[in-house]
Amino acid sequence: MNASAAVIRDATHADLGAVAAIYAHYVTETVATFEEIPPTDDDWARRLTELTGRGLPFLVAEVPEDTGLTVAGYAYAGPWRPKPAYRHTVEDSIYLAPGRTGAGLGAALLDALLARCATAGVRQVVAVIADTGSDASAALHRRFGFTPAGRLAGVGRKHGRWIDTHLMQRDLTTGASGAF
């Protein structure tokens, strides 16, 4: 699958079953997220309503299949922290369906997400990346101008191990866009 065949668009309630299934894999099988119980479709519906109500993007990547278009990944920007002074800073989240990595979908989603964040008046985007043993997420974020902003040691415990997180940050006020 080539990412150029993907359609990146706003998520709808009809997409949330696929979004929930994608994320459930990461919740139950990996340490990429610190959630331990997969959110329900209703949880996702609340998240979609909350984020879009704030003017923040929630996107899906659809790819062509024999039966039509299939949601193969998603990305959204959520509030970084609840205090009002943080209102122009968001945290990004990007997840791809198992078997869909390495085809450019993550880059397509992140590129669209950053553009939409800038349009929404976001100034800073923070990535909180769990130390899964893979550099793929950090490498993707570096390609889009994110820089290291810190490391939190042993802040999560999942699947019997302590996990670090790496913080990366991208300033959207510099005028840079697209992959570097």
Examine the secondary-structure arrangement and name the CATH architecture: 3-Layer(aba) Sandwich
Number of helices: 4
Order of neighbouring strands in the sheet with most strands: 1-2-3-4-5-7-6
Question: In percent, how helical is the residue content?
Answer: 25-40%
Principal-axes shape call: globular
Contiguous low-pLDDT stretches (5 residues minimum) are none
Q: Note the quaternary state here.
A: single chain
Organism: Streptomyces luomodiensis
Pfam family, one: Acetyltransf_4
Protein name: GNAT family N-acetyltransferase
Domain N-acetyltransferase: 6-173
Describe what this molecule looks like in 3D:
The structure is a single chain. The chain is built from 4 helices and 7 strands, in the order E-H-H-E-E-E-H-E-H-E-E. The model has no long low-confidence stretch (mean pLDDT 94). The radius of gyration is 16 Å and the shape is globular. The protein is of the alpha+beta class and 180 residues long. It is 28% helix and 34% strand. The chain has helices at 16-29, 41-53, 105-119, 136-143; strands at 7-10, 58-65, 68-79, 89-96, 124-130, 147-158, 161-171. It has a 7-stranded mixed sheet, with helices on both faces. It has a single domain, classed as 3-Layer(aba) Sandwich (Aminopeptidase), CATH 3.40.630. This is GNAT family N-acetyltransferase. Residues 6-173 form the N-acetyltransferase domain.
Please write out the topology:
Layout: E1 7-10, H1 16-29, H2 41-53, E2 58-65, E3 68-79, E4 89-96, H3 105-119, E5 124-130, H4 136-143, E6 147-158, E7 161-171
Parallel strand pairs: 4-5
Antiparallel strand pairs: 1-2, 2-3, 3-4, 5-7, 6-7
